[in-house]
Amino acid sequence: MKKLLAILMVLTLALSIFTGCGGGSTGSGAATDTSTDAADTTDGASSDNVIKIGVFEPLTGANAGGGELERQGMELANKLYPEVLGMKVELVVADNKSDKAEATTAVARLIEKDNVVAILGSWGSSLSMAAGDLVQTNQVPAVGASCTNPQVTLGNDYYFRVCFLDPFQGTVMANYATQRLNAQTAVIVQEVSNDYSVGLASFFKSAFVTLTGDEANILDTLNYNTGDQDFSAIITRIQQLNPDVVFAPGNFTESALLIRQAREQGIEIPFIGGDTWETPDFVTVGGEYVEGIVLSTFYDHTNPTTEIGKIFVDEYRAEYGEDPAAVTALGFDAYMLVLDAIERAGSADPVAIRDELAKTVNFEGATGIITIDANGDAEKYEAVIKIVQDGNFVYQDTIEIAQ
Amino acid sequence: MDLSILAQHLTNGISFGSLYALIAIGYTMVYGILRLINFAHGDIFMMAAYLTVFGIAFNLPWIVAIILVIGMTALVGVLIEKAAYKPLRDAPKMSVMISAIGVSYLLQNLATYLFTGRPMSFPSLPLLTTPMTIGSVTMLPLTIVTPVTTLLLLGVLLFVINRTKLGMAMRAVSRDYETAKLMGVKINQVISYTFAIGSALAAIGAILWGMKYPQVAPTMGVTPGLKCFIAAVVGGIGNVKGAVLGGFILGMVEILLVAFMPSLSGYRDAFAFVMLIVILLVKPTGLLGEKVTEKV
């Protein structure tokens, strides 16, 4: 009897592996999003009337907040524009779990099992970079929405993006710090295991040094790891150094805790950061402590510069009842750009799509006019400065740096 | 480094260390009784945090919520023991440990499924979380409440272990499982109580932790769980006082490492593991541990 039970359990376990194969729309186990009705298919091979586009985002793990926002943008775009070339477009969602190793698995699955013609994402430059090789080798174009590290597209013919780059963003924040905050000294707090954080920190550093004229004006660079929750030692060190400003480019999860603990310990020094902070989770966790925090980001929903931008804001408000985040608008643009490329290419062949993406000139997206340059980057020379007020990200300024 | 900065570091270290101590006690007690390293303990801690979030979300007054959470977490601990560890009591020690790892992943994925992977905000108790200034050091009242609570609970626990019948039963079982069973000690009851107490302490730790670091995510228990296991080993696994000592040492070392050598702050986690290796090489039974004869 016991043996029979054991055999039965083993069989159940073995068969349960195959339940994961059917859907093709979620990562292994873990969280599934509830609104992937657009995505589910029952077999892996693409049928003739359906074009599949992969959504490669972190939906669980530390970056889940950002990934979810981007996915919303892509799904909204899919809802508004579900067809191209007379064929239906389906989104296949793969969760990279905010983990680089898992990212390669997720992309491999999208390419090999789901046969997507293009990939959108990911939030988090290190995750996009992890997928870079696979995308290039398998010749499936990928369009990043908000990944800002230059390495994502450098040397990779198949990765594109619709946002600006970190060298630009670092310069913008350094300008803000020296001109608006009159800062002469700064301390950098970076997430040492995150390519985005380290990259942006170094760009800020070089810009800040250039602007203030002295390398010693960066008083110190302090490191923390992904998932850290206690920053008391870092904060005490900041207290000791007493800089004019603290630049802390990192994911909203850790940054919210860092700022909160700093304010709890009585530090009044302004903290500034990058685009990763613009998520509702940042304000939820940071609470009243992140009031007055300044960050650079891609887009201001109160001032859409294009027709499609207005449509996007209205549709998003109708669907979700709140204002869209910048990365959602970028996710929307990534989808729209791919659709536009498919139309121009006249076919759903990934290589043809890739070629058309590279030729994009003056494409009208929700976040502005997008022209793709030789590296696969969007030529964007404007950044929006936002400040946290009453728990909302409020537009403060636009900074343009002429090219 | 001037005195006020050092004082700040020390207070942070003691507070942080006492959080580790609370969780480490759970590990050490279960090991003492069952010779099992309960890897799921960190995730019980995580569950307690989520329960608190929901308890407060239902507008329960804090006192009620805290008592409920402690009770429910103790229940969860006992249930896990009955479901995953009891059937394996006669199995080799490795099987139970693997079962513990399985429970750990089960809890994490259950939380991810139920609550999504996005971090939630832990509610704050303004009484304890409004910053106050003492001399030149600014801190939360929580920073003082935490070590005081830990030491109080340690006192109560030691009283239970040394002066009550249950405590005597626990000591008997941890000294010699078989003989205690033969002598009529109610093994199942003792084990259930052990898990209940350990989980309850983890729940208190979770509440204090959540007030300090208000980010609740399904994987929040993994790193603290691992580090508290190290703390328990460093102090002498099986020994409650050792667990508290180990927790304090680990917490202090982490904070002071970053304080005195900020360039090494990225290696903070690594240091805990280095300490584990060192203690296993130099004094494997831990700082307060006694040599236990291994019965084959």
Walk me through the structure.
The complex is a heterodimer of chains A (403) and B (296). Chain A is α/β, with parallel strands linked by helices. Chain A folds into two domains: 42-164 and 307-372, Rossmann fold (3-Layer(aba) Sandwich); 166-297 and 384-400, 3-Layer(aba) Sandwich (Rossmann fold), CATH 3.40.50.2300. Chain A has helices spanning 2-23, 64-80, 100-113, 125-137, 166-180, 195-212, 232-241, 252-264, 280-286, 307-320, 326-345, 350-358; strands spanning 50-57, 83-84, 87-95, 118-121, 142-144, 159-161, 186-191, 218-224, 245-247, 271-273, 294-297, 363-365, 368-370, 382-389, 392-400. The longest helix of chain A has 22 residues, at 2-23. Residues 22-46 of chain A have low confidence and may be disordered. By secondary structure, chain B is mainly alpha-helical. Helices cover 73% and strands 3% of the residues of chain B. Chain B is built from twelve helices and four strands, in the order ααααβαββααααβααα. In chain B, strand 2 (132-134) and strand 3 (137-139) form a beta hairpin. In chain B, helix 1 runs antiparallel to helix 11 (240-260). The radius of gyration of chain B is 19 Å and the shape is globular. Chain A binds chain B through residues 29-32, 59-62, 64-65, 68, 97-98, 192-193, 220, 222-225, 227-230, 232-234, 236-237, 239-240, 253, 256-257, 260, 263-266, 281, 284-285, 287, and chain B through 1, 5, 8-9, 12, 16, 109, 112-113, 116-121, 124, 129, 131, 133, 138-140, 212-215, 217-220, 223, 254-259, 262, 265-266, 268-269.
Largest sheet data of chain A: 7 strands, mixed
Give the structural class of chain B: mainly alpha
| Poorly predicted parts of chain B | none
Structural class of chain A: alpha/beta
State which percent range the strand residues of chain B make up.
under 5%
Please give the structural blueprint:
The complex is a heterodimer of chains A (403) and B (296).
Chain A (H helix, E strand, L loop, with lengths): L1 H22 L26 E8 L6 H17 L2 E2 L2 E9 L4 H14 L4 E4 L3 H13 L4 E3 L14 E3 L4 H15 L5 E6 L3 H18 L5 E7 L7 H10 L3 E3 L4 H13 L6 E3 L6 H7 L7 E4 L9 H14 L5 H20 L4 H9 L4 E3 L2 E3 L11 E8 L2 E9 L3
Parallel strand pairs in A: 1-3, 1-4, 4-5, 5-6, 7-8, 7-9, 9-10, 10-11
Antiparallel strand pairs in A: 2-3, 11-14, 12-13, 14-15
Helix pairs in contact in A: 2-11, 3-4, 5-6, 8-9, 11-12
Chain B lengths: L2 H32 L6 H17 L4 H24 L7 H23 L4 E2 L4 H4 L2 E3 L2 E3 L1 H23 L1 H11 L1 H6 L4 H26 L2 E2 L5 H14 L4 H21 L7 H15 L14
Helix pairs in contact in B: 1-6, 1-7, 1-9, 1-10, 1-11, 2-3, 2-4, 2-9, 2-10, 3-9, 6-7, 6-9, 7-9, 10-11, 10-12, 11-12
